[in-house]
Amino acid sequence: MNPLTSFTPPKLAHIRYALWILTAIAGLVLVGLYTTGTQPIERRQPIQTGEAAIHSEFTLTDHTGKRVTEADFLGSWQMVFFGFTYCPDVCPTTLAYMATVLDILGESAAKTAPLFITVDPGRDTPKVMADYVSAFHHRLVGLTGSELDVAATADAFRVYYERMEEDSAPDGYLMAHSGHIYLMTPEGRFEAVFREGDQPPEEMAWKIQNIMDKYGK
């Protein structure tokens, strides 16, 4: 036997000895629990994702100045995205992506209500929203309101947003926000969530069409 391979430093030997003792104790404890009739630990309930809590509920002002609620869009598949017009990257790319999806859907796009809800109502007035959404798609609806209106709407959709101070940004701040596109049923219930970059627009359009076909709506 090679003495180099069989040699165990004293310190390691002590550690191994201690581990053997702990293993033996653990084994005795488990046997004791079993023989005394201890009941097995109950399985944890499945963790809820929170998707069921997402719902379309809002009172906002559209880009034409009209006060609207979710009831004005009942019967349409809502495609909902939260952002702001001063957004330097995610918002314009996502809205352009949504516009492409709408074009690919063709006639089925008439069944949708693509909504862009601002998280920066202080700057995003109806006029600002009108100019902004018109640059992406004629069906796109811009929605704004008071700080409380927007906060309540974001809460209904479980959307995160936060003002971030940034000296180099216009007015010295940006808005951090989630970048998801929510697909809501014609009844306003959550159906699916997408994100630009996770799949090409053709795939998202295909998935939405399949969902529409499944519901027959």
Can you offer a commentary on this structure?
- This protein has 217 residues and is α+β, with helices and mostly antiparallel strands.
- The protein folds into 2 domains: 3-35, no CATH class; 51-215, Glutaredoxin, CATH 3.40.30.
- 37% of the residues lie in helices and 20% in strands.
- The chain has 6 helices and 9 strands; from the N terminus they run ααβββαβαβαββββα.
- Strands 2-1-5-4-3-8-9 form a 7-stranded mixed sheet, with helices on both faces. It has a two-stranded antiparallel sheet with strand order 6-7.
- The longest helix is centred in the N-terminal third of the chain and has 26 residues, at 10-35.
- The N and C termini lie far apart (78 Å).
CATH topology title of the largest domain = Glutaredoxin
What coarse outline follows from CA principal-axis ratios? globular
Main beta sheet: strand number and arrangement?
A: 7 strands, mixed
Report the mean per-residue pLDDT as an integer.
83
Tell me what portion of residues adopts beta-strand conformation: 15-25%
How many domains in all?
A: 2
Measured as a percent range, the helix fraction is 25-40%
Span from first to last CA? 78 Å
Strand order, largest beta sheet: 2-1-5-4-3-8-9
**How large is the radius of gyration?**
28 Å
